[in-house]
Each structure stands twice: as C-alpha cells, then as structure tokens.
Amino acid sequence: MSFFQHPLAVVESSSIGDNTRIWAFAHVLPGARIGSDCNICDHTFIENDIVIGDRVTVKCGVQLWDGIDVEDDVFIGPNATFTNDPFPRSKQHPRKLPRTRIRKGASIGANATILPGLTIGERSMVGAGAVVTRDVPADAIVTGNPAEICGYAGVSEGRLPAVGAPPPEPGSATTLVQGVMIHRLPSVYDLRGNLSFGESNLHIPFAVKRYFLVFGVSSQQIRGEHAHRALQQFLICVHGSCHIVADDGNARQEFALDRPFVGLHLQPMTWAVQYKFSSDAVLLVLASDSYDAGDYIRDYAEFLTLRKSPA
Amino acid sequence: MSFFQHPLAVVESSSIGDNTRIWAFAHVLPGARIGSDCNICDHTFIENDIVIGDRVTVKCGVQLWDGIDVEDDVFIGPNATFTNDPFPRSKQHPRKLPRTRIRKGASIGANATILPGLTIGERSMVGAGAVVTRDVPADAIVTGNPAEICGYAGVSEGRLPAVGAPPPEPGSATTLVQGVMIHRLPSVYDLRGNLSFGESNLHIPFAVKRYFLVFGVSSQQIRGEHAHRALQQFLICVHGSCHIVADDGNARQEFALDRPFVGLHLQPMTWAVQYKFSSDAVLLVLASDSYDAGDYIRDYAEFLTLRKSPA
Amino acid sequence: MSFFQHPLAVVESSSIGDNTRIWAFAHVLPGARIGSDCNICDHTFIENDIVIGDRVTVKCGVQLWDGIDVEDDVFIGPNATFTNDPFPRSKQHPRKLPRTRIRKGASIGANATILPGLTIGERSMVGAGAVVTRDVPADAIVTGNPAEICGYAGVSEGRLPAVGAPPPEPGSATTLVQGVMIHRLPSVYDLRGNLSFGESNLHIPFAVKRYFLVFGVSSQQIRGEHAHRALQQFLICVHGSCHIVADDGNARQEFALDRPFVGLHLQPMTWAVQYKFSSDAVLLVLASDSYDAGDYIRDYAEFLTLRKSPA
Amino acid sequence: MSFFQHPLAVVESSSIGDNTRIWAFAHVLPGARIGSDCNICDHTFIENDIVIGDRVTVKCGVQLWDGIDVEDDVFIGPNATFTNDPFPRSKQHPRKLPRTRIRKGASIGANATILPGLTIGERSMVGAGAVVTRDVPADAIVTGNPAEICGYAGVSEGRLPAVGAPPPEPGSATTLVQGVMIHRLPSVYDLRGNLSFGESNLHIPFAVKRYFLVFGVSSQQIRGEHAHRALQQFLICVHGSCHIVADDGNARQEFALDRPFVGLHLQPMTWAVQYKFSSDAVLLVLASDSYDAGDYIRDYAEFLTLRKSPA
Amino acid sequence: MSFFQHPLAVVESSSIGDNTRIWAFAHVLPGARIGSDCNICDHTFIENDIVIGDRVTVKCGVQLWDGIDVEDDVFIGPNATFTNDPFPRSKQHPRKLPRTRIRKGASIGANATILPGLTIGERSMVGAGAVVTRDVPADAIVTGNPAEICGYAGVSEGRLPAVGAPPPEPGSATTLVQGVMIHRLPSVYDLRGNLSFGESNLHIPFAVKRYFLVFGVSSQQIRGEHAHRALQQFLICVHGSCHIVADDGNARQEFALDRPFVGLHLQPMTWAVQYKFSSDAVLLVLASDSYDAGDYIRDYAEFLTLRKSPA
Amino acid sequence: MSFFQHPLAVVESSSIGDNTRIWAFAHVLPGARIGSDCNICDHTFIENDIVIGDRVTVKCGVQLWDGIDVEDDVFIGPNATFTNDPFPRSKQHPRKLPRTRIRKGASIGANATILPGLTIGERSMVGAGAVVTRDVPADAIVTGNPAEICGYAGVSEGRLPAVGAPPPEPGSATTLVQGVMIHRLPSVYDLRGNLSFGESNLHIPFAVKRYFLVFGVSSQQIRGEHAHRALQQFLICVHGSCHIVADDGNARQEFALDRPFVGLHLQPMTWAVQYKFSSDAVLLVLASDSYDAGDYIRDYAEFLTLRKSPA
Question: Could you tell me the pTM of the whole model?
C-alpha cells in the first residue's frame, strides 16, 4: 500500500492509488475507488459507488455519495455538498440514483451545493457558495443561488486582456485568437434613422450563402460550443447584446457584440461559445455555406487534437 | 369670359380658366392665376402670388396667401388654413416667403392647418383638423396635432384587402402586387432560444451579395420611396416591427413585418415605402447586388412610365 | 316673411322660421330648411340638404354641408367645421353622403372639426378646437385631437358638488342622486395581504343573484347609458379605477370607484354611465336578478318620462 | 443496547431508540434523546436539549443544537446547518433560545441553512442550498437565498398530472380532486371591452350569500391552509393570477387561476391553499354562507381524520 | 375719416384710427374701437365690446367677440378663433363674459383656438393650429392641442446661437447674456459613486447665505419670470433637467441644466425664466442673501427701464 | 498545559492559550496559534498559518486555512466556510495567498461562505448562509448571495428605537446621538411645483461655506465611515433616499433621509456612515468650512479615544 493514511482515518477500500493521502477523520467505504496523487482531507466521507480520478483534491467536510463520478484533476472545496436524490424522504430510497459527473479539471468552490444528476463540465469553476441546479458547460464560471454563468475560465482569470474591441473606423482588426477578426462595418447615422451595411467579399470576407438569426435566448442559456471544419461565419448582434468566447485551442478571448455595426469573423477551426444574451438580443450570423451536420466539431478534446495535428 | 362669377364675388384677376366658378363673397386679387374647371367657394380669399391648377376645389373659408402653389386636382376642405410666415409679427414682413407646394391630386382636410414652406405630396391626404408641421410624402395620410402618417392612400381607402399575410408554413405566397412575394422562413423555437434561417437560392430567391440594416428610425419617418431597376431585395424585420407599402404601378398593398421569420421579396421595378417603424425596429435587407446609385428610380411618375413601357 | 335678413346676406331658401335672423355675408341655398328663433351669423354658408331646428345658433365662419341635421337648441361655435366626405378628392363626389346628426341641445365649440357621418349626442359639448372622430354620447364633454371624453355635462359645469365620497367607516351614505347610495365595505389590511368582503342583505342591500365583470375597457369607451326598471346593482371596482355618472332624472352626480372596498348601490330607475376606465380596471357588478333584456331602458327621454310619471 | 454505534463514534446519551445506527466521528451529548430506526451519519454532532423522533435520517456534517425538535420521519441532508441564536456573539449566550421545530416528514436539503426559531412544516421540502428565514408551511417546497415557496410537495413531485385546465367552452369539468370542479364562465370579448358573468344556481352551483376579495398579497405569502365543513366556495382571480392547491385527503392538484372567466368550485371538506399571488392579483371568492369561525378546519391531521371517517 | 374701407365692407363704428384699412366682407359693429395703422382683412367680424390697439393685424376669417382686448402690435393669423363663453348653450348667455387679453406684440397663429378668459402674454407666440387652454406667459411659444410651451421667443427664432455650454474643464465661461456665467464644477466619478462640490467665494462667486430647492414641477409649468435687484444666484440642476432662459434686456439665451456639475451664475438685474422641468428635476439654487420681497422685479417693462437707466 | 483537549481531538500545536477547549474530532496543525478562553468545537480543522485571538468561538464543521487572521472575540458559526484561493485548481497552489481578516468582535453566521482576501470588519455580522464577496465594513450586517448590507449592528439589534423622525413642523429635534439634530425645513407645496429652502444661521445652524453632492452611488456602497474634528455638516437627500447611521461613541441611531425638506445636522466629533442609497439618490451636504484632510478621523478606535478624552 503506497498511499498515506492518517491513524484516525477509516479506510475500508483497498482501491487507493499511489501517493494518495487520506487525512484524519476521513472515512472511505469499501466500494470506493480513488486514483493516485489525490488528497482526501479531514472530515471527508466517501461512499461506495464512487470513482475518483488522479490528482483530485477533496477538501475538508466534503461527502461524496453513491453515484458521483469525479474525473482527473478535479478540485472540491471545503464543505462543498453533493446530493443524489432529487426529492429525499427519510427511509425512502429512489430505485435508481441519477449520476453526477464532475468532469476533468473542474473546480467546485467552497460550500457550493450541487443538485443531483448534473454534469459539471471540464475546467469549469463553480463559485464558492453557489447552488448549482443545471449542468455547467465546459470552462464556464458559475456563481449565485441559483447559479448562473458569470464568465468563462481562461478569459476571466485575468491572464488575458480585456474584451476585444472593434477598430475605430470601418475595417477589421486582429484579435488574440488566430482566425478571428473583429470588424467595424460602415454605418450612417442621421436624423432619419440609421443604416449599416456590408457586402460579400468586401466587408464580409466571404460570399454569403446562408444567414441565420438567433433570438429569444434567455440570459442563462449558452449556445454554440462547437467549431466548424470548413464553414466561415460572420456574427453581428443587430439588436441587444451578447458575448462570444472564441478559442483557437491555444488562446481564448471574449467579445461583447452590442452594436449593429460590429461584426466578428470566425474562420474554420475556431471553437466558439455564445452567451450573456440580453433578453432582446438578435444575433445575425452570415455563413459561407449551407448547413452541413458533418462540418460541426462538438467535442472540445477532438477540436484540440485537430488543431494541433499537422494540416 | 367663360368662367362663372357670383354677383357678390370680387374678382380682380383676369387669369381665370374656363368653366371655373367663383362664388359669393369670394375675393380674388389681381395677381392670382386660376386654372380651368375649378370651384372657388364662398368666403374664400386668393392673394396675388398664387398659381392654382385645373380642376381644383377650394371650399368655403379658405385663404390662399402669397407663395402657395396649388397643382391640378387638389381638394382644399372648408376652413383649411394656410400660412406663409413662420414667425409672424404685425407689420413685420419676412424678406422672402417660404413657398408652400400642394402637389397634384392632394386633399387637404377640413379645418386643417398647414405650416409655411411645406410640400404636401401627390395624392396625399391631410386629415380634417390636422396641423401639418412637416412635409407630407406622396400618398401618405396624415392626422393629428402635430400631424403624423397614419396610413397610405390607396391602401387604407378600403378598396384593397387587408395587410398581406405570410403563408402558415415555411414557403412563399403571392401578393396583390406583381413581383412581390411574402415568405415564411424556417424557424425553430425551443427552450434554449429561437432560430430562424434562410439560404441563398433556396429560401432567398437570389444570391445574397450585400446586406444592410435599418434601425433607430423614429415612428414619424418614412424610408424607401423608390424603386430599383435591377436589384432584388429581401426584407426581414428581425426585431420590432415596420410596415412596407409595395406598389407595382397598378396595385398597391401594405405589409406588416413584425416577426423574424417573415420576409418580403421585392423584385426589380417595385416601388416601396417603409414606415411605421417601432422604436426598436431593426430591418434587415438582403440584396442581390452591390450598391449602385444608378439603379434607383426616385420619381414615382418616372416609375409609372417605365412600368407601362414595353420592356 | 317674418324673419330678418341683413341686406348683404344671400338667402335663396324660402323655408325660414319666424324670428330667425340671418346676418351679413351669410349664404343660404334654396333647399335649406331653417327653424324659428335661429341666429345665423356673418360669413356662414348653408347648403341645400340641410334641416335646422328651432332656437339654433350658427356662429360666424361656419358652413353646413349637404347631409347635416341640426336639431333644436344646438349651438355651433365660430369657425366650427363640418365635413361630409371621408376621403375627399377634387371633382369626385361619393354616391351617398354619410349623414351627420347634431342632437338636441348639443354645443359644438369654436373651431372644432367634426368628421363625416357622426352623431353628436343630446346636450353633449364638443370643446373648442376638438377634432371629433367618433360619435359623442349624450351629455358627454369631449376635447382634444382626436377628441376624447373628459367629463359629463351637468356634472362638470360646476353646478354640482364634487365626486361623491364613501363614508369614513364601513357603512353607507346617501348621495345627491335619489336611489344611489355609496358604501364602504369592511376590509382588513395586514402584512399577509388584504381582504374586503360583503354579505347579501347585510352589506349588500339585496340578495345577490348574479355577478358580472367588466374589464379590458379602453379609456375612450363608455358603457352603461341605460337604466333598469327593476334590477338592483352593486358596483365595486376591484382593480384599477373607473367613474360612474348616476342620474335620477333630476340630479346627476359622478363617482370615482378606485378601491376594492367602495361600492355604489344603484336602485331601479337610475340612469348610469360608466367611463374613464383605467387600462387595468376590473368592475365587479353584483346584481339582484337574472339577465332580462326587457328590464333595460336605453332611451334617456323614455327614462325621464317614466321617472316623472306617477307610480 | 439495541442500537448500533461505530467504534469511532462518541455517544454520551443513553436515550437511543432500537435499531438506530450512529456512525463514525458522530458525537451525541448526554442529554440528547434519539428515537428508533434512525440513521445518524458520520461527522454529526447532537447537543443536549434535543429530541429526535423515529425513522429520522441525519446525514453527514450536520449539527443539531440545543433547542431543535425533530419529529418522526424527518430527513436532514448533508451539511444542512441549524442555528439557535439570532445574533450570535462569542461568549454571549441568549437567556432563552428560540426553538426550531422540524415537523413530521419534512425534508431539509443538503447544505441548507435554517435560521433560529422557525417551524419547518409537515412534509415540506427545503431545497438544497436554501437559506430559510421564515416558517415553511406544510407541504411547501422552498428554495433560494432567502428561500421562497416554489411549489407544493405531492403536486410537483411529478406524480400528478399538470395543472388542471378549464374546459374549452363555458361549463365545468371534474378535476383529480374529489369535490373540486373547474369552470369556464360565459364571457364576451369585443372592442368596447370585455364582460364575464355568472349566475347563482346556474353557472355558480350554489346561491351566493357572501363575497370576499383578497388582494395586495405578496408573492411570498400563502393563504388558505384550511378546509370548510359546510361552506361552498367559488374562486375567480379577476385580475392578475394566483395558484390554488386543492386536496381531498387523498389526491392533490394545483390550479393556476389567471383569467376572469375561470372559476374553481370548492365543495365542503376540501383542503385548499392559495399562493403564488402576482403583485396585482385580485381573488374574488363567492361563498354560500355567512362567515362562521366554527366552520373552519385548520389542522390538516384533523381534516384527514374527518375525511376518512364514515359520514 | 382717414381710414380705408372697401366698398363691400360693413363698418358701423366711427371709432377707427388713422391709416387703418378695412377690407372686403369685413363687418365692424358700432361699439368697436380700432386704433390706427391696423389691417382688418376680408371676412372678419368685430363685435361691440372690443378695443383694438394700434398697428394690429387681423387676418381673414377672424372674429373678435365682446370681451376681447387686443393691445398694440398684435398679429392675429387667419381663421384664428376666439371664444367668450366657457360652456356655450344656444340662447343662454352668461351674465358676465370672462375677458380675453391679447397683450402687446403677441402673435396668434393661423387657425389657433383661444379659450375664454385667458391672457396671451406680451410678445408670446401661439403656434398655428394650437388650442390654448391656459394663460400664455410673456415671450413663450406654445403649440399643440392642448397648447404647451415649446420654447421662448427671441431664443428660438434662430437669431441666437444654440444653448450655452459649460466649459470642458472646471471653471466658468461667459455667455451671450451680460452678467450670466456658466460654470463647470469640480467632480469626481468613481466606482463608489460620484461627487461634485463647490465652495463659497471659490467655485461659487459669492458667499452662500441661503439655498432653495425646486422640485415636483410639472413639465407644463414655468417658474421665475422675474429679476433681482441685488441678489446673486447660482443654479444647479442636481437631478433630472430643466431649462433656464436668461435675459439682460438686450440679449437672451437658453441654457439646459441637466448635470449636477453644471452651474449657472445669475448676477443681479438678470431676467430669468425656468421651464421644461423633467418630472424628476431638482433644482438647487444657492443665493447670496436672505429672502427679500422688495428685491424682486416682476414686471418685464420695469426691468427693461431699470436696465437701460444709467446706474 | 492549561487548555482542555478531548481525547479524540488531534492537537499538534503547542501554542494554545489558557482555558481554551478543543473538542472531539478537531484537528489543529502544528503552526496554528490559538489564544485563551477559546472554544474550538467538534469537526473543526485549523491549518498552520493561522492566528486566533482570545475568546474566539469556532463552531463545528469550520475549517480555518492558511492565511486567515481571527481577532479577539470573534464568533464563527457552524459550517461557516473559508477560502484562500480565488481560482482553485487541484494541485496548483497560488504563490501567495491573499489574507482574510476577521476583525475584533465580528460574527460569522452559520454556513456562511467567505471569499478569499476579504476583511470582515469589527463587530460586523455575516448572516447565516450569506456568501461574502466583498469587504464587510465595521458594524455592518450582511446577508444574501452575494451578501449585501441590510443594516447596522447596534441599530438593528432591536436595542434602540426606530429610525429618527423629523419634527412634524419646520424646526429641529434632538436624537439619541449627542451632537446630531434632525430638522424639518420650511417647504411649500403647490400645483406649480414645490419649494423647500434654508438659510445659513437660521435653518442651517452654521454659515455654509461649501456644498457637495453625492450621487450615482450603488445600493451596495457605503460612504462616510469617518468623523470630523471641527467641521459641521448638514445633510439633505434632495432626490431618492439614503440612510445615515450616526454614532457619538456611546449611542448610535439610523436615519432615513428620503425627502428634500428633511435635514440632518452633524456636529463635530460625530461618526457617520451613509448607505442604502437608492439608485436615484442625490445627497446634498452643506458644510461649515473648506475641505481639510486633517479634519478627518477615519479610525473608529481613535474616534472613540478622542470622544472619551476630556476636552
């Protein structure tokens, strides 16, 4: 047994990985499986139907109940609380527990509460004290009761510059993300009303083959979360506002689209997320080709692999 | 003298057209020129610097001051009141009077008030009691104090069916106007938000070469008022609402665009007016070609001539 | 011929009543019929298809066109303007003119404009400068462009005390109108919400047999305008506000109902009008009997006759 | 000793019921009394002035302080946190602790916080992460910080069909609850405003003896929570909206009243709760008899007993 | 008789001033008194109890009824309509007519309607088609139905530059009006909230002895309309907005106060008017001395005299 | 060793003060320093880089991480949860932990969550279940997620009378706080708008030398938190509302300023806090002297010392 166990810990499982440390007053039931290099702190409780990956930290006061999967590199803050029964009644046990999935690299803040059956996405971050009632998408940061998305990890951790801004005159500007340009489109403002316009292959850097409009999106929703293999897109928020997070697999940047003369050009192989829709937002997307389901890459890991492979 | 003059009328001008009748207590000053087949009713007053066309009716209690041009077929209702000095002070006369122009076929309602220097467009209709403070476009109906456009003549006179409606399923429908189709675009409504879309040469009956957005138009403004020789347009009001009046030179119909999945296809040689913009309206126009000033026909008479000439 | 005609008037009709005076620069066409004791002022014009009752005043600058009926005791202020063609075009005459009816005792304010085909109700009062686009009910006072009801004659002429008020404690109080009582119903206000209530034959002075709710009434609408022969009613405006004008044939009083604990008891043979509905008004009417069309008196003259006849 | 104690538990009380299990790192002080068939999980702490009923579950990380009564069949989720001092200061102890009462069958969600001195009603359900600052009524489900009622247990657990709907035409329909009918009342909608009505013994299935109006109820309030022995009631939400939960002792159903032509008829011996009042809600209740305090059944247990006893 | 009378005019008065001209179809009753250099146009009617000053223009279609005083230099536009009975009924004459006063230099727009008993202030301007229901202050421009103040004569006639602007940095700037300075006060804007301040004899060019706050002023109201002999004032609109018109007897300028860091310094002997209050406006006035009724000059003519007299 | 240690506690530190008690399943790491008379309850965990003062209570389920300073007399409720890494990721440790400071006498409510690097002010009170994301000022009471100030300790603990009220007539009234007077200023309300005013040395008890305006303060902000040595201030909330807490070192009282005719006079040596600003609040402060940084006392302890020292 190459793991550490404090003398006052109760460890009934034999499936504990190397270098994992289990501290005082912790209690691990026989069925639990814990990976290597984990840190299971004081006053924790790990039930049976549990799989914990490698390099996971479980801080004090946390219980992991039957039905919770914890992938590699997850951090679970102190007193963070999980559930596995949507309508608990004493002595009444649901026939089948909904599974909770904590994806790779996610971070659950101190004293957060996670309702049953949710998926906490990769690298996402649940704020301290948040009460999570819906799935958390990859990379999202959620806070509040009930928790809502307030930002995206990587973007808001302060390691990147502020929201990308359009150039001061009509034209385009590069961004921190490869393949993403921000455009200011020509516009005319006068007393009779305002006009903004763009032309294929001139202001819009491709021939427009198709458009679509996204509207009526609640502020809690996120859309996108995919990349395209070949499609080019040009996004204009023609009413209200929304935010776009674009990612080239290496850098990530957030863009606020809130004016009808600002466009964001996404070249192929750009991962993009749309969120923070105002209630009156109308997002116009001009696209370079017809709809093709096979053009979508919906798995971020696959996207990363494809980005990194030689063309 | 082939015109009729009531014995109690005072007619000092000798430029009166055939068959014109001038009734009791009317007073026409020497410089006035009046066309033929006019009816100048009791208690009217016609000053000197005035040209009145043919077949004009001037009802009782109306005065026409220096600087007012009245084209053929105009109707001026009883007690309708004109002005020619924007800031009248007793005994102070402006050096130059702004001219008021009442275009061919216009109708000025009873007791309406017309501020100085305005143009009342062809066939337009000023409602009874209206106080007109801005130019009235051709065919518009205006009412209120200050007067605003409330409809378009030809459309609202009840001789045409109601506003054109999109088909109940995605697809297109003909309208009363030749060359104008109304489309319902595919749309998907779900809890995550709504989506509507269209593709060139599939839902949009041409290849989209250019788009423009019209927004921030006040409810009093009208836009358009022209036809295109070769350009095709596809109009979608993606937020808020506006009305389109389309005219093929023969029939005229009004369309309310108020949903992002309703489009109006205007083929070349369609005269169109856009008005009744809600304050939050965003009108997306997809166009078949680049901007070309020479493609515009801005004169309705020229439009009619071109429509009627053999191709 | 016992009527007066100014030497500079043109009177072509021979149907002019006794003691009627027609002043300078007036013009009466042959077909017009004018009653006795009228005053037709300077610069008026009376066309042919016109019947004017007795004791009518037509002030300067007024024209009365074909199709206008003016009943007895009407006052028409200076420059008040009538119309008889809803969509006038020069030299185009509608086949059939809509008739305008100015009912007995009505008063048309100076420079008011009356659109074609309307009825101006008995004793109603059109404010100076008003532009009347809809029928005016009996006794109503209308102002503005377009004109809206702003009060009721008899009530607002200042000869009656202000709006009737409920008593300060639960109970009832008499009003100026015979057969109308105003009630304050018991109510309890506490932090958990509010309660008001009434019981048949206790707070409500009859057994409730039926209720009805009136809601969604636009601010321009008036309702009621009838009396009941036998039905008792108890009116409570449970949300928003409306005004009730009650009339016993002798006195008339206006009541603002704007709180759910204020009720108005209308005994049989009370003429009542409901108006000034706020957009969110819900008027609850508790009634003493089933609906019976024969119980309604819809003609005010008939109501007066019945009120005055011995029981 | 017929209860189970983990070797690492500290149990100082001798008043522990049969079959109760007390797990590792739990600490029970001498004064505590715990019923039978309970489950006291790891890392719990039970102070002295505590009475716990039978079949109670206390999950990990929970402390029960002096002054907390826990009735039978209660579930207390992990890390749920109780308090007993409204303004805690170190080393300052209030003379008298307010008592917290967790009623029979209640469920306290994971990581919920319960402020001192509250009563958590029978079968109610406190959502995970909720911060409860006010009493929770029987059967209510509360969530959020501060917690508000979001539904009623039995209704929202998905075991019953959706909210009862009125029939499509005027008339009545049965519901899942015995003695409760939902009515659509006759209504007339036209441009002049809308009308809805009902007549005793025709649309209203009894003679209306009394009415009351409930209004100005905050969205957090609940009303009702009683049954009547003999009174019949007919509920119409004449403005705004509210929800009614009706219960015959066997089935329970929730009804949204949000239109003035929808009525809910509650026969005698129906338990009813009114809640989710919109801020502008006005609930009209027509009742078959005068107010009689003796007609109320305010205790749900008594109601159940009476429902089940032979008539 | 040195005045001109058209052969078709009826002039029964002998009190007509020199050089006055009376045109065709005009009718002047015996009691009317008309000054010199007037122009009484066609189709006018002048009753008996009327005094008209010198240099007055009365355009066509106007009637002047008993009880109307018209001072020197007034302009009355065509078809402008006066009234003298607030509730006219045919054959019922009020015992005493309210007098209407048209002050020196006022201008009544074409087809305007003036209700009975009003005063139309000196040099004020009633817009064409306006329906005037309240007194019009001196110099005010009113339009609409009912008429509201939309500007001030002298300011809005386009002969003066636009609204005075504060300097871009804290400090003061001269204006077109002698003795009026516009100030930008120091201000600090940060995330914690904003601060603006001023100190006596430093930013405020006098020692502050008194303050007053003006608030809750309806948009139709005007305030001020006086000058001070010795008092200095410093005006800051600390919430909402209002307009100040300042006048040194020679130049006049309008200032929009709409930010808490903009102040207007009025030295003694400045005539000032405050109007266009937003509904939420709070105007703070810092004053150099206690209230002294004798310090006010409320008559503009007296103000002009005092301004022009050598000090 | 004069402290108490439960046999099942793990205490690795030797720096524990007299009379401190450490209970079952508590774990104190070697570097921790704990003062005397503390109570460290069951299931607590105290890391190394921790200093705890005297008379501190740490209730069950609490962990104190490296970087947390706990001053004397602090109360930490059960399951209250601390953090020390703003963006925790498993196995990634920030180079430098932000320090959390719990000031003397503060009280952290049960199950509250404290984000890293914050200061919880002296005597402040964090409500149960609150999620604290910003510094908590001294004496403030905060609740909610995220936590906001809802009151001030001392004021809201019910030991003081309600908010101080101005006198019913113009004039001033004493308050519970020495040196603080509440004034009603003269005001005149009429239909033309409202007026309130004050004069130096008459209504304002000093000569006004300076004013400042505070506006645009978010509802979460607090301002003030200082006393002045010599400056007198007179506070009027001229729009919107805010609350003032005034403190003479002995008594403390809260005042709601929400009307432009209510002023609060703060004499020198009064500690004052301004908070609960409505979004539209404008606070006018009249001051007796120029700005002088040296006149401010920003440390409450210093203020208390100065208040208590003989003059």
Answer: 0.70
